[in-house]
Design brief:
By secondary structure, the chain is an alpha/beta fold. The protein is built from 18 helices and 14 strands. It has a 5-stranded parallel beta sheet with strand order 2-7-8-1-9, sandwiched between helices.
């Protein structure tokens, strides 16, 4: 069988041919679907969360809602009902050609038509265009209440999984609201599968402690080197290529990211002019890897540099409370990211270490307080969402008090980019107030790698 390289390797919205199953992930996921708990799939970006769904669930098994920063719980519930073809009449007045159209009012209430409930209110719905009259029984529900939504789903005997993709895009208020709603749905046997970009366990339990023992979490990380070898081997057999000369180097360059492994493999094959299954065994060489590394570094760089610039884009304003200028934590955070030792970035930065390092860089170190830094870190995800940084590249684990990179391509980019040059192009909101810190930054830049 002939395969296209883009269908074998790379990051795609559909399942790729080199996907491998891992017992610690795939088997755990399948078991989680049957234990009655809500299911949380989490990990860094491009680490296989969506592929896990595509591999283990057929399209008829689930309904998927793509979350966004503007999504509210009621939007999710409306989408679910529409996709399940459950018809409803919204509370707002609706224009109609009929003489006896249903009218409801108030909040996010809806009326669901049923044809077999003798206790429901009977309303006439006349189809003027056809002249046919139907007697329809309507029951009013409030889509802001998880209890009401669960009653609708139970009444229609819905037995499909409800998948929430990109849960991390939701505002923290919405995430917290849904964490409470999940408790209701779990009681009713309605299973949500939530996909989110974060790296710490018990993320939703932090919003609602009552979810403890009511959710099953499936982390898609870590990926082991043996897993990467299996992916490369499977893809190599499908395309009739040989990665043996560069396999170790390729895996080392990926920084434990399956997304980077997949993209490097694809780019190596394309550099070797392998666009589909090769009729003859094609050897992938170090030169192909160099071309692939340069290509992916440039591609990732466009997005990450733009994200850095958006992240530090702050207004220089005065605080109403203290009369002091903004502490500009976004700028100093990126400055630290581009000057600190690479090993520290990989391991994550503790809040105490961040406080110490930012004070060393800051033009007003005495004003940098732990509480102010904590407020910035607690809102770091929302800050990225407000700056349209999607997916977010950094996250703060409140439980462990540690900052972690959650964009799996970030490590690869930071290793291969000129961090000092990027820092020079990042606009400094205080260009004349931090000159005494230039020596500190200069010394850091000498030891970037």
């Amino acid at each position: 069988m002939r395969y296209q390289t883009n269908d074998v390797f790379g990051v795609r919205s559909r399942l790729i041919a080199s996907y491998i199953e891992r017992d610690t992930v795939d088997q755990a996921f399948r078991e989680a679907l049957t234990d009655g708990n809500e299911v949380i799939v989490y990990g860094s970006s491009k680490q296989g969360k969506t592929s896990l769904i595509l591999k283990n669930l057929s399209a008829r098994d689930y309904v998927k809602v793509e979350c966004s920063p503007q999504t509210a719980p009621v939007d999710i519930y409306k989408s679910i009902l529409r996709q399940l073809d459950i018809r409803f009449v919204e509370s707002e007045a609706v224009e109609s050609r009929t003489e006896d159209a249903a009218k409801v009012s108030g909040g996010f209430k809806v009326k669901i038509p049923f044809f077999s409930d003798a206790n429901a209110e009977i309303e006439a719905l006349t189809k003027a265009s056809s002249g046919v009259t139907h007697n329809v029984r309507y029951i009013e529900y409030n889509l802001e209440l998880a209890q009401d939504v669960s009653e609708i789903l139970k009444r229609y005997a819905v037995n499909r999984y409800l998948v929430l993709e990109n849960f991390h895009y939701l505002s923290l208020d919405v995430q917290e609201r849904l964490a409470y709603d999940l408790r209701v749905f779990q009681d009713q046997g309605i299973i949500f599968v939530i996909l989110g970009i974060w790296r710490e366990a018990n993320r939703l339990v932090q919003f609602n402690g009552d979810l403890l023992d009511r959710i099953t979490e499936i982390p898609v990380e870590p990926w082991l080197h043996e897993d990467f070898r299996r992916v490369i081997k499977k893809g190599s057999e499908l395309l009739n290529v040989d990665f043996s000369q560069i396999e170790d180097l390729l895996i080392e360059a990926s920084f434990d990211s399956i997304g980077v492994v997949q993209e490097l493999c694809k780019s190596c094959c394309l550099a070797a002019k392998v666009e589909h299954t090769s009729p003859n065994r094609q050897i992938i060489t170090i030169e192909h890897l160099k071309v692939a590394t340069k290509k992916k570094s440039e591609e990732y760089g466009v997005r990450h540099i733009r994200n850095f610039e958006s992240f530090v884009d702050i207004a220089r304003k005065t605080s109403n409370q203290s009369g002091k200028l903004s502490l500009a934590f976004p700028y100093y955070f990126i400055r630290l990211l581009l000057t600190t030792d690479f090993t520290n970035i990989e391991q994550g930065l503790l809040r105490s270490r961040l406080l110490e390092e930012i004070r060393l860089l800051h033009h007003r170190p005495d004003d940098v307080r732990s509480g102010d830094l904590g407020a910035f870190l607690h809102n770091i995800t929302q800050h990225q969402i407000s700056k349209k940084i999607q997916p977010p590249f950094v996250d703060y684990d409140r439980g462990g008090k540690i900052m972690k990179i959650i964009d799996s391509s970030m490590y690869f980019f930071l290793r291969h980019c000129d961090r000092a040059a990027i820092l020079e192009d990042i606009p400094n909101p205080f260009p004349h107030e931090g000159e005494d810190q230039a020596g500190v930054v200069g010394e850091r830049q000498k030891n970037l790698f």
